[in-house]
């Protein structure tokens, strides 16, 4: 780890701003980091009015007090360029939302979405016009009631499609006794939506809130959706009472919060698992970790056995929940129908399949939907062979890779295929197009989004682009093509947090766990390239507040990602993707809390270190894919900048290699 006050320097140059020859006044003076639009009290408006701005881009030297621009170079610039610099022009501008996502020829209505919901959807999300391809396949199956295994690219609309399908599902009603002992009909929760972290829970809640508020008449929101996550301000007793009084149509929860409630009798009564009709597990590969099978003839076998043992010792809350909800299925799997067995049921069924599907209907076992952008072979094998949660006789597998879909219907006549490949390899075979139609989709998928992947390597002597990184022309073309974007009001950028919150004395007196040069490289790259919102993903075990603190001491408008924060949080979920902010924000999150997030204004993701490192496994590649998948969604542009130390750079290149991506130079680093 580099010394805080080391000689290390990071060389930056202004991008194409000076290469066009449209320069005007020669500006010369010193300017600190805040001048690049990274301070929460950015004077950028004032700067924009003047053409005699002082500039200090050039040699950037990290210092321990966070003022990293200590050396000044004379630069020639124009007012247009100044405007671009102060608002963080970047190699990627936020894209307007009127792109054309790969859509199906069906309409939401023809897929079975209720007319009132379609109308509300149009008002709430005017950009959502037609279902995407995955939504076409998913919504039909979701409404049909079959179990579903779902895999498609990040940002293809899986979670959004799940929300629409669940909203349309018929409301479950049971007969209940009121306080006078009279029978009456009572609404119960229809669907349970399990997600890995609370920000994703709030994002889904927010989507539903927007649609529900456009319904005419609009029902009370808590009768349609409620969220159960840890860290809620309300005490558990109040949450239980609310669930009992008004069971929501959809309950969105994190697994741990669900188990906390399920532990008590009162909580179990409120959750009413036996009346559920659908259970969705989003990001299932994250929530149900499994170990990659290793070739028994190779020496990894011991490592595999150790990994399995570890998982079995801590199976995780999602496994526990699914074991509870699907205990009848597990029993059926363990004791399948035996026509020779004595008993009154003898001879009632002709086959195991017949028996199984009859029992499923009789016992009203809820539909199970498992979804992720990454479903590795070992997870699929675990689900089909070991878990017992899925009905292998009535399952839809909707799996897409590079825009090519493989949809297989598992029915009684065509039960689930067993293990697909024997052992995990880092590169799973790519789906290849086999006909013209597929080739068309495949090509469209290749064009979808324009994500640039860069790797910055930090050493004691500075920061460089990884060896072999290509010079990317596309970046400036994208910038030119997209033209001007709207400016956000400075007012909305006022901090709603007290920055002092992070100024803990202990941070100044304890050694930082972060490499200061890495942090400064991130701060600088953010300052010169992010127009609106960036996201920094740090390892799951890294201290988030400390990272925010350190970035703030460098003048970066950094915030821990928290969608719960009323105004600020919801702001990030809005569709104002064409907004460039006067004072860009860097959101900081850990690896554990980024899956599934959809922040339309996001253009840049910074990754600190090799995700799920130090070694490169399938888990590492998947983690990178999910992190990178926060940008470039639905055809937008995006940039992923990994900041790694020297000993990690080959590993990071390998991750990109596996994903068949080539690192491109981050232009600002000379
Ligand atoms: N049919 C549609 N037309 C246009 N935009 C859509 C459509 N469906 C979803 N979107 C938008 O696409 C974005 C991504 O959707 P979503 O989060 O559901 O993708 P995802 O496949 O679940 O991604 P991830 O795998 O990263 O969780 C959201 O902003 C959503 O509003």
UniProtKB/TrEMBL annotation:
Stretches with biased composition (Basic and acidic residues): 477-489, 500-509
Main EC class the enzyme belongs to: hydrolase
Domain Helicase ATP-binding: start-end pairs: 139-393
Annotated spans, Disordered: 475-509
Keywords for this protein: ATP-binding, Helicase, Hydrolase, Nucleotide-binding
Top-level taxon in the UniProt lineage: Eukaryota
Segments forming domain DEAD-box RNA helicase Q: 106-136
GO terms of molecular function: ATP binding; hydrolase activity; nucleic acid binding; RNA helicase activity
Chain span(s) of sequence motif Q motif: 106-136
PANTHER family per record: DEAD-BOX ATP-DEPENDENT RNA HELICASE 50 (PTHR47960)
Protein name: RNA helicase
Lineage, uppermost ranks: Eukaryota, Fungi, Dikarya, Basidiomycota, Agaricomycotina
């Amino acid at each position: 780890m580099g010394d805080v006050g080391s000689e290390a320097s990071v060389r930056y140059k202004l991008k194409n701003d000076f290469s066009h020859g449209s320069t005007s006044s020669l500006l010369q003076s010193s300017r600190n980091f805040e001048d690049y639009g990274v301070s929460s009290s950015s004077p950028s408006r004032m700067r924009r009015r003047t053409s005699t701005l002082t500039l200090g881009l050039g040699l950037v030297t990290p210092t321990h007090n966070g003022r990293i621009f200590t050396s000044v170079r004379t630069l020639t610039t124009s007012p247009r360029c100044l405007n671009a610099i102060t608002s963080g022009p970047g190699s990627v501008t936020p894209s307007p939302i009127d792109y054309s996502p790969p859509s199906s020829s069906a309409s939401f209505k023809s897929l079975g979405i209720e007319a009132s919901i379609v109308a509300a959807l149009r008002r709430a999300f005017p950009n959502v016009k037609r279902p995407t391809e995955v939504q076409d396949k998913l919504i039909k199956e979701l409404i049909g009631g079959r179990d579903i295994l779902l895999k498609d690219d990040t940002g293809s609309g899986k979670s959004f499609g799940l929300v629409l399908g669940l909203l349309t599902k018929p409301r479950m009603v049971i007969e209940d006794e009121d306080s006078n002992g009279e029978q009456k009909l009572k609404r119960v929760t229809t669907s349970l939506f399990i997600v890995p972290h609370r920000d994703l829970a709030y994002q889904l809640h927010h989507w539903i809130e927007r649609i529900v508020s456009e319904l005419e008449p609009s029902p009370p929101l808590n009768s349609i959706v409620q969220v159960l996550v840890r860290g809620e301000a309300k005490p558990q007793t109040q949450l239980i009472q609310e669930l009992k009084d008004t069971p929501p149509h959809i309950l969105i929860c994190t697994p741990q919060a669900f188990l906390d409630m399920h532990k008590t009798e009162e909580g179990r009564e409120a959750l009413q698992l036996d009346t559920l009709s659908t259970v969705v597990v989003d990001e299932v590969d994250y929530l149900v970790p499994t170990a990659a099978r290793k070739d028994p003839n190779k020496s990894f076998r011991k490592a595999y056995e150790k990994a399995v043992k570890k998982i079995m010792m801590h199976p995780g809350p999602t496994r526990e929940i699914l074991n509870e909800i699907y205990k009848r299925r597990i029993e059926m799997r363990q004791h399948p129908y035996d026509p020779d067995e004595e008993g009154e049921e003898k001879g009632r069924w002709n086959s195991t399949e017949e028996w199984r599907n009859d029992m499923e209907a009789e016992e009203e076992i809820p539909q199970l939907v498992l979804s992720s952008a990454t479903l590795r072979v070992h997870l699929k094998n675990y689900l089909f062979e070991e878990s017992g949660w899925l009905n292998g006789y009535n399952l839809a597998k909707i799996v897409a890779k590079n825009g090519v879909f493989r949809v297989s219907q598992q029915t009684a006549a065509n039960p689930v295929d067993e293990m697909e490949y024997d052992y995990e390899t880092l590169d799973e075979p790519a789906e290849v197009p086999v006909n013209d139609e597929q080739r068309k989709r495949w090509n469209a998928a290749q064009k979808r989004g324009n994500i640039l992947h860069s790797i910055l390597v930090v050493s004691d002597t500075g920061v460089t682009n990884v060896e072999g990184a290509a010079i990317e022309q596309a970046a400036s073309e994208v910038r030119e093509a997209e033209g001007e974007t709207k400016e956000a009001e400075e007012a909305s950028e006022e901090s709603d947090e007290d920055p002092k919150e992070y100024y803990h004395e202990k941070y100044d007196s304890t050694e930082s766990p972060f490499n200061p040069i890495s942090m400064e490289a991130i701060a600088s790259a953010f300052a010169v390239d992010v127009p609106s919102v960036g996201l920094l993903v740090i390892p799951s075990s890294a201290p988030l507040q400390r990272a925010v603190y350190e970035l703030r001491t460098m003048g970066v408008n950094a915030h821990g990602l928290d969608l719960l924060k009323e105004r600020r949080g919801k702001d990030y979920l809005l569709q104002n993707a064409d907004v460039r902010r006067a004072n860009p924000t860097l959101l900081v999150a850990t690896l554990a809390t980024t899956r599934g997030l959809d922040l339309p204004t996001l253009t840049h993701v910074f990754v600190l270190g090799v995700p799920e490192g130090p070694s490169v496994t399938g888990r590492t590649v998947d983690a990178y894919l999910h992190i990178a998948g926060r940008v470039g969604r639905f055809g937008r542009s995006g940039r992923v900048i990994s900041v790694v130390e020297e000993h990690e750079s080959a590993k990071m290149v390998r991750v990109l290699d596996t994903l068949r991506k080539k690192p491109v130079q981050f232009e600002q680093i000379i």
